[in-house]
C-alpha cells in the first residue's frame, strides 16, 4: 500500500491525570513499592500506545517514556554515571539520585549501610522550551558502556507484544554530547565534548543492532542541534558520527534524522550527505523552510512534516497544513511523506476532555495532545484521499465523508477564532498602533533621575530591599484553597491577607529595611495572578505540562487582545503603604515574562502580544504612581529565556523585548523609581540589552556564579543602580553578615558604591519566616557596616 503515514514524535508521559507524577512521588515517599512503580508505569505506557493507535497514528513513538528525564536516561543508558553516584547500587536509587540528589542512609554497592549526601546533576532548559533536562557530566577520558538491558529495547518489545509496532526514539549522539558538560575544567566547550564521539558511537551501534534484533524498522534519531548555529567542528562531528553510526547498519533499519525548534533549509548541504533514510522538519516554527528542504532532499529519503504544533494548544489550521503537505507530496511522491507533530507532544497538555470549565467558544479553538493525534491522522487521510486514484486507492466513501466533515468543522473553528469578538479588540489594536518612540523613553536621563529619587524616598547609601515575595506558608496556601473552594468569603480571605501583609510590613520595619514590599500573599503565581485579572487570558483545570522531573506547570492561555479592565495590584500596595512611612515598592510581572510563561497566540507575532501586555501593565504603573506608590518593580526573570536559538536572531528579539519593557515602565515622573529583577540564567550575553531597559535599579541573581556576573559588569559596564543578590534564597542556609560583606566587597571592585543596593537574589516565598528574618537582619547589618566604611567616600 502506497500512502502517506501519520507520525508522532513523543507523547506526554505523565498521563491524563498526572498519574506518573503521583506514582513516582509516592515511590519517593516510600508509599509505592518498586514493583508497583514499574508495573503501573508500564500500564501507562500501554495506555498511551493504545490511545495513539486508536486515534490513527502509524508511527507511534516508544522510548519517549522516562521516570525523570530523557537526557538523563540517555546518559544512564550509556553508563555516563558521575563518580559521586557510583557508590549507590544500580537501580532506581542511583537513577533518581542523579536527577534529584540523595540525602540519607543507603546500602552501598558493598552492601554496607552508609550515610550519603549527594547533590543532583545540573538542570538546564531544553532549548527554548520551559522543560528542563538533566545535564550529563562527561570527563575527558569518559568511558561509555551500554546498559545490558536498555529500556528503549524493552519498551519496543513491550509494545510489540501488544501488536503495536513502534518507532523507537533516540537522542542522537551529537546532540547528546552538545547537551552535556565537561565534568572537569579542561573539558569545557563543544570541541572537547565532541572528541568523545569515537568512544560513544560504537555503543549507539550496539543499541541499534539490539533494536533491529527486536524487530524495529524506523528509528527516530533526534538531532535538534542541526538547526542551531553550527561551527565547522560540529559539522564535521555530524559527518563522522553518522558515518560511523551507520557502519554495518542492520538491513532492516531506517534512520529518521529529526530536527525541531529551528529551520534546517540552510543546512541541507550537510544533512543530505548524512547516511540516513529520512528527515523530520518543524514546519510550525518555519513553514517557509519547506521549499529549501525539498530542493535538496536526497532521492529515496522520507520527509516527515511537522505540521501539528507540539508546543502550543491551538487547533491546527488543517487547510494550511494540507497546502504544505501537498507541496511536499507533489514533489517527492506519496510514499515518501509523513504527517507529523512538529516536535514531541511533551510540551502540550494531555487532553481537552477534562476541561469542563473552559468557555465553550474558546475550547473550540484548542487541541491538546490527544486531540492533536486526531489532527495528525486526519491530515494523513485527507492527503491520501486527494491522491486517491492517482497512485493509491485505499479510501472508501464513508471515510471520505468523515474526513470532509472534520475538515469543514476545523475550517469553521479557525474562521470563528479569527473573527471572534473575544479575540479581536479594536481599541487595543488602535492603541498599539499609536505607540510612538516618545512612549519608550523616560523623561529624564538616569543621572538626573536617581538623585531626585534618593531624596524623595530618603534613601541612605547602600539601600536595602527584597525582591517581593515573603514566605508562602501552609497557612497562606490553605487560606487560598478555602477561598477558592468557597469555604471562605472574599471578606474573610482579604482580612487574612491584610493581616499577613501587616505582619510582613512590621517585620521589615523592625529589621530596618529601606524599601519595603507588601509580600505578595495574594498571589498564587507571578503570571497567573495577572492573567486572571487581564482580558484575553484563559485558564485550564488540567492543562499540566512537564517542567522538570515530576514537576508540572499549568500555563495560562493568551487567546485574545489583552487589556486591563481595572487595576490589578494597586489596592495591596496602597494598603501596605498605609502601614508605614517607609516607601512601599509596587510589584508587577513584566510583559516578556507574562508572555514566556503562558501559552501564547499563534495568530500574531509574539512581539505584538508582548506589547499589548506592556500597554496593560503601563496603565498599572500609572495607577500605582497616581496612588503615590513611587517605587515600582517590574520583574523580568524570563527575559533571557526568550532568546532565539540562533544568534543571528537575537538582536531582533532583544529589540522588541526591551521595547515592551520600556513601554511598561517609561510613563513615570523622574522621581518615580523603576526597579527590575532577573534571575534563573546567566545574563552576561544580553548585558547591553539590559542597560537599554534603563531601569533605575536592577536586582539580579548571581548566587550561582558571582564571577561570571562580575566579569559581565566589567566587560560591558553598567551605568544605572544595581543590587546583585547577596545570598542564595534557594537554600535554607542563613548567610552571616560577614559573608555577605565579603561578597559585597568583591562586587564593589566593579560597581560604583553610590549605586549599589543590598538584597537577596530572588523572592523569599519558598523560605520560612525564621530563616528570612535572620538572613535579612544580617543583610541590614552588612549595610550598616558598609555605610560606616564608605561614609566619607572611603573605598578601602
Ligand atoms: C522568579 S522572580 C520572582 C520575583 C517575585 N517578585 C518574587 O519575589 O517572588
Ligand atoms: Zn527571581
Automatic annotation (TrEMBL):
- InterPro entries, per this entry? Cbl-indep_Met_Synth_N, Cobalamin-indep_Met_synthase, Met_Synth_C/arc, UROD/MetE-like_sf
Q: Which residues form the Cobalamin-independent methionine synthase MetE C-terminal/archaeal domain?
A: 462-784
- Record EC number: 2.1.1.14
Active-site residues?
730
Note how many cofactor molecules are bound and how. Answer: Binds 2 Zn(2+) ions per subunit.
Q: Which UniProt keywords apply?
A: Amino-acid biosynthesis, Metal-binding, Methionine biosynthesis, Methyltransferase, Transferase, Zinc
Record-annotated residues binding L-homocysteine? 467-469, 635
Q: Which GO terms describe its molecular function?
A: 5-methyltetrahydropteroyltriglutamate-homocysteine S-methyltransferase activity; zinc ion binding
- Residue ranges constituting the Cobalamin-independent methionine synthase MetE N-terminal domain according to the UniProt record: 6-330
Q: Which GO terms describe its biological process?
A: methionine biosynthetic process; methylation
- Required cofactors, per record? Zn(2+)
* Oxidoreductase found in the keyword field: no
- Give the family, as the similarity comment puts it: Belongs to the vitamin-B12 independent methionine synthase family.
Q: What name is this protein filed under?
A: 5-methyltetrahydropteroyltriglutamate--homocysteine S-methyltransferase
Q: Which organism is it from?
A: Dispira parvispora
